[in-house]
Design a protein that fits this description.
Layout lengths: L1 H52 L4 H29 L1 H20 L4 H29 L5 H36 L2 H17 L2 H11 L6 H6 L3 H11 L2 H22 L14 H19 L2 H6 L1 H8 L3 H26 L4 H27 L2 E3 L1 H6 L7 E3 L3 H10 L12 E9 L2 E4 L3 E2 L8 E3 L9 H7 L5 H4 L4 E10 L3 H33 L5 H30 L1 H21 L9 H10 L4
Antiparallel strand pairs: 1-7, 2-6, 3-4, 3-5, 3-7
């Protein structure tokens, strides 16, 4: 009896220990997601104040927003190699330290160069986190709770975006109070400090993630591939019962032996079967298409530019920030629902549901913007007349300026009210073209529009080649400033702004319940063990390249073609996403990683 009681106590202790360790794993997953969410979302609250005080052009602001994504591209490209070389745990620690370092670089910056460098460093951290945390979770968690664990990563990612939005709304109230009691110079100074403080308060999550990463073991599958079976089994035992740990270790050995038998030999003690086999090619291509389409929905751009979108839709500064807070809360709450459904309904069902709703929402918002953008007057002749002999232009767009421009264009309609008008200027020097962001005549704290040759013409031939390979750089350096378009448009009322906001909330809800929860699972589950780390890196590089491109062209694109065209473009990409999920994606719910790999090996060619 005593022995039986002792055994029961030991099993109870093991079970409690396993539960505690799984809790730590989920905590680290959550902190990783929180860090990634802050990386993505922090610019949303800071951007209006950065735009108002930095003196950066629309193109420079777009690059600052996109710098996080650009940094992610570079770090994601090498994240798989680093994860294989130094291990998943060490790379998680490195990614957290990189984020911690980026914050003071950004918050203390003055000018475009330092600000870009800090954001780039922040993006490097995001790229590493985006690869290594889902990779680590997929290899450490069992099949029964892998969906939950990766869902927590996405859930806390959305919480990070909510936190960033709350920082923004807090400073929005402070800005409004200062605007009522102080002059324009004081308000300008406060806005300059506001965006810096928003970045400072994002520092603690990075430190917590580093501490959490120190508490977990290395990935059992990484240890197994390194030939350390004893440590791999010990790592499995931390999060599983002895029976399940032994079973998964046997599956790993069986998979390795099967690959060895197929190849017929070993090279250097490592399995080297052909990477062109269907069990590698099909899941890799599927993951790449899904990652491409996932970001081509425009989700990162809509998050990053959300406040500006709502401002242009008709909301004032305070309501636009509140609209962004609600937007992030929708993301957070619906992700909670997605977490509960992902291991019940399955990945494929949620992806089809989510992408269908995303398409409908994007089309609705695009149509709403199309109705207001039709009331636009091109005042380029009047603005061209303002261009000075120095081939530059400084224009403060307020009610008086709006009235003068409309009068010069002989506008006699009533759709555009000079008290609530917007202006975007598209201009060129020789073959190179640029555009300003939208400014509103009812925002007295907005800095003047500044157009200079430096804001449009590249500084060297390498930059010129990537901007326009057929342009003449030497001619552009002396060409006069030409105003191609100066679009004065109607800023609709607040009712219209809240309708647009509802459309964006629907977009976020459908994205959160489907792609938001499932994309990290698809990425980590589809890839076979042998290529998982490097395959995830390549797929995420594609994801980040698309995201960087969209974020970088967003402001110039909407200045030239309007918000409606951008939303219609996002809807087209999402249609490809829907077809891929519905027609080609297998269900991976409840399967071990080895079972998923065997599915692609055995599936007959279609």
């Amino acid at each position: 009896m005593a022995a039986t009681g002792s055994t029961s106590a030991a099993h109870a202790f093991e079970s409690a220990s396993t539960r505690r360790y799984n809790t730590i794993l989920l905590l680290v997953a959550g902190l990783g997601g929180l860090l990634y969410g802050i990386d993505v979302g922090i610019i949303g609250g800071a951007l209006p104040y950065l735009e108002a005080t930095s003196g950066l052009t629309a193109a420079q602001l777009s690059v600052v927003v996109a710098a996080v994504l650009l940094g992610s591209v570079f770090s994601t490209l090498f994240a798989g190699l680093l994860a294989d070389w130094m291990g998943r745990k060490r790379l998680m620690i490195l990614s957290g330290l990189t984020f911690v370092l980026s914050i003071p670089v950004i918050a203390l910056s003055h000018g475009y160069g330092p600000l870009f460098s800090g954001r780039l460093l922040q993006g490097v951290s995001a790229g590493l986190v985006g690869v290594v945390v889902p990779l680590y979770l997929a290899e450490c968690l069992g099949a029964s709770n892998r969906g939950k664990g990766t869902g927590i990563f996405q859930w806390m990612l959305t919480l990070g975006i909510v936190a960033a939005a709350l920082f923004g709304i807090y400073f929005s109230y402070r800005v409004e109070a200062v605007a009522r009691a102080a002059d324009a110079a004081t308000l300008f100074h406060f806005k300059d400090q506001a965006w810096r403080r928003i970045f400072w308060v994002s520092l603690p999550p990075g430190a917590l993630f580093v501490l959490g990463s120190l508490l977990v073991t290395e990935s059992p599958r990484w240890l197994f591939r390194r030939g350390d079976k004893e440590r791999a089994y010990a790592a499995l035992r931390r999060s599983r019962s002895p029976e399940l740990a032994a079973l998964e270790l046997e599956e790993m050995e069986a998979t390795a032996h099967a690959a060895e038998a197929t190849r017929g030999e070993k090279i250097g003690g490592k399995v080297r079967d052909s990477l062109l086999r269907r069990k590698y090619v099909i899941p890799f291509v599927l993951a790449c298409v899904i990652l491409f389409c996932n970001t081509a929905t425009g989700v990162n751009s809509i998050i990053g530019y959300n406040t500006g979108i709502l401002l242009q839709s008709g909301l004032n500064d305070l309501y636009a920030h509140w609209g962004y807070v609600i937007f992030t809360m929708v993301n957070f709450l619906i992700t909670t629902i997605g977490m509960m459904l992902v291991d019940r309904k399955g990945r494929r069902f949620l992806l089809v549901l989510g992408t269908s709703g995303v398409i409908a929402s994007l089309l609705s918002v695009g149509i709403l913007f199309k109705t207001t953008e039709s009331a636009t007057v091109d005042c380029r002749t009047a603005v061209q007349a303002m261009v000075g002999s120095g081939d530059g232009l400084s224009l403060r767009f307020d009610q008086a300026a709006a009235s003068r421009l409309l009068a010069a264009a002989h506008y006699v309609g009533s759709a555009i009210d000079d008290r609530r008008a917007s202006l975007a200027i598209i201009y060129s020097y020789g073959d190179f073209t640029a555009a300003t962001s939208y400014v509103r005549s009812d925002d007295r704290a907005t800095a003047p529009i500044e157009i200079t040759r430096a804001s449009c013409v590249p500084t060297n031939k390498v930059e010129a080649f990537f901007k326009d390979p057929f342009a003449n750089l030497d001619a552009a350096r002396t060409a006069p400033l030409k105003i191609d378009k100066a679009l004065v448009g109607r800023v609709p009322g607040e009712a219209h702004g809240w309708i647009v906001a509802l459309g964006l909330y629907a977009f976020m809800a459908f994205y959160a319940v489907g792609p938001g929860v499932c994309v990290w699972l698809a990425l980590s589950e589809l890839m076979p063990t042998r290529i998982r780390s490097n395959g995830m890196s390549i797929a995420l590089v594609i994801n980040q390249l698309v995201s960087t491109t969209l974020a970088g062209i967003f402001l110039p694109f909407v200045s030239r073609y309007g918000y409606s065209s951008m939303f219609f473009l996002f809807a087209g990409f999402t249609l490809v996403y829907l077809l891929t999920a519905a027609l080609f994606l297998p269900e991976t719910k409840g399967k071990t990683l080895e079972e998923i790999e065997a599915y692609f090996e055995a599936r007959p060619a279609s």
